[in-house]
Structures are given as structure tokens and as C-alpha cells.
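pasting Aspartate/tyrosine/aromatic aminotransferase for the record, 390 residues
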Amino acid sequence: MFDKLASQPNDPLLALIGLYNADSRTDKIDLGVGVYRDDLGNTPVLRSVKAAEKLLLETQSSKSYVAPEGDRVFLDLLWELVGGTQSGKFAAGVQTPGGSGALRLASDLIARAGTGRLHLGLPSWPNHAGIFGATGLNVETHTYFDVPTQDVRFASVMKALSGAQRGDAVLIHASCHNPTGAGFTPGQWEELAAVISERRLIPLIDSAYQGFGAGIEEDVAGLRSLITAAPEALVAVSCSKSFGIYRERTGAIFAVADTQAAADTARSNLVTMARTSYSMPPDHGAAVVRTVLSSDILRKDWMDELNSMRDRLQGLRQQLSNALADGWQLAPQIAEQQGMFSLLPLKESDVLTLRKEHGIYMPTSGRINIAGLKGADIERVAAVLKPLLG
Ligand SMILES: Cc1ncc(COP(=O)(O)O)c(C=O)c1O
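structre below
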């Protein structure tokens, strides 16, 4: 049987890690991998997470199964953090293996019950198209962002959604757009909410970077306006970045509706789809998040840690923008964009030269992870980028 299979290409981002690791230069710089790093280049376990893990180690009395939908207290606390308490909607959650697992279940649900069509603005996180394609959705793409001008193409987004059919799904990044860092303005969120409500579209909102953009509440303001406006919505949450628990595979999918019965029906479908795939989600990361969010002290410490990760990102963005300013007229956009990523207008050959001659690693798309920069690297990186961008 295995003979009949074609061997699959490596994921380009994972292949990039291999290339970076094999480079013996001591001053190499990794702007590729999408994890937060501190100024020493580490991705540390947060203090609040360590404290929660200690508590769990001391108090956890069983490793028996939890529940098909996962940890209900975790789900309630996470929904309060993301959706807030004012939406006037009913949300039914299912804990998932990471945000990816949440997107996969959402995609399965859309394939099962919706029009099977999803509108996706490009560029986007590459795994979006991968996941939606794997469940057989008909993915219709439109331009979200223009790389040379670093502009969000809002007219193109509105055109796609104005032409969408009732019940079509539309993927929306809640904040810190991956890979561009460019988001909607408050006015654009309002227009988006209006077209989604008027056309009766289903927003599938991907929230993977809450707290990395403008603030913990600010980063979900647009999301909340959409769920208030839309008759039904799906919200896929990843805890990987905000809690720094990437490998624990922690997230949730929330079905949001006007009635408890509708939300519960959606949840019962999500649970049965999970059951025939991986049965139940891993517990540890969700138990950590529950422990952090349910303790005033740990929650406060986590917020301080998240705020300082955001401050570091904003500081790096400003420094890089300043250092590029005398060679690239769009440099101020780097400081305006939010979260970990920006997408630079570089040719593939430029990216390969940066790797070969300067030991600076990024995917061929030109996406850079701002958190991969150390303060001391910025002048050197800007000096080699300027002639390529200007
Ligand atoms: C936009 C976006 N959504 C979802 C995810 C999924 O994250 P995870 O499955 O690691 O929780 C990522 C991860 O990089 C992402 O960038």
C-alpha cells in the first residue's frame, strides 16, 4: 500500500528550521519560526504557567477522562476572555488540540451543515487553505493585502463579501494578522459587521494572538462586534501564543448563536466529529489556562507577562521602522502593524541572498517574525534590508 503513496514535500517553515540549525555562523538570525522569543532568543515558559503547573502537580488527583467537550471551566473562562460577557449571544465551546484543531472542527462543521463555501482573504496563514481544503470546503479567495504598498485592500474584501451567498463562511483574523500584521480600522470592522449581518454570512474568526497587538481587550473588540452582528458565528481560539504553551496543544472552538438550543446543537456536532478523530483533547494545557485564569494572583501575573511580550514587540517594531526609515518610505507601516509578523516586499532571490550571505533566515514569502530580532541585531538587519526594499 505504501508504494502507492507519493512522498509529500516538507512543510517549508519546518524545512527552514533545519536550514537554520545547520548554519554554523554564530551571528545568524532566525526571523522564520512563528514563536515569541525574548531578547536572548529564548521562548521561555511563563512564570504564571510554571506556577499553575506546580499547583496542578500538587493537587491533581486523577488522570481519568475529563469530558467529550473538554474542561468546562476552562471553556467558560476562555470564552469570557475572548467573547466577553456583553454579546447577548449564547456560546457553546469544545476544547481542541490547539487553534489548528479548532479550525479543523469548524471547517468540518461548515462542510457538514453550511454551504460548504468559505471566503478567504490572501495572503493568510498557509495552514488555513490546507485545513479548509482537507475538509473539502470550496475556498474562494480574494485579495486582503497588497505587499508592495503594505495596504489592506478593504474594497476587495467588501466586494467579495457583498457578492457572497447567504450561509457562506468567511475567515477573519481577530488581530495580529498572520502574515501581514495589518488589521482593520474600527470603521472597517463596523462595515464588515454590517455586510456579514446583511448577507447572513457566518464569520469564522481566528483568534490566535490575543494580547500581542494593542491589548488584551483591544485585540478582541472587532471580534466582539462581529459576533454581536452575525446571526451565527464560529470562533477558533488558540492559547499557544498568549500563554506560551505551543506544545501543549490548547485551544477551543466556540459556536455562537442567538439561542442556547442552536449553540448546543452545533456543539453536539463538533463533539461527535472530534470523537471520531482524536476522541478527546489533551488536558494539561487547558488545566494550566484554567488554573491561571481562575486565580486572581496568577491571572494578574499572566497579564503582566503578556503585556511585556507585547511591549517588546511594539518596541522592536518601532526600532526597526526607525532604522529602515532613511531607505524605505513605507518603513512607518512596520511600526503601525501589530503582532509578531510583517510581510516584506522581497523577491525570493533576495530572501535566498539574505540567507546565504548574511545568515538572516525567513521564508521565501518575505514574512518576518519581529520577535526573532534582538535589539542588538536591528541596525545590521536594517542595513541589509534597505537596499532590497528601497
Ligand atoms: C493565524 C493562526 N491561526 C491559528 C494558528 C494555530 O495555532 P496552534 O494550532 O499552534 O494553536 C496559528 C499558528 O501559527 C496562526 O498563526
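The chain is about 45% helix and 15% strand.
The first strand starts at residue 29 and ends at 30.
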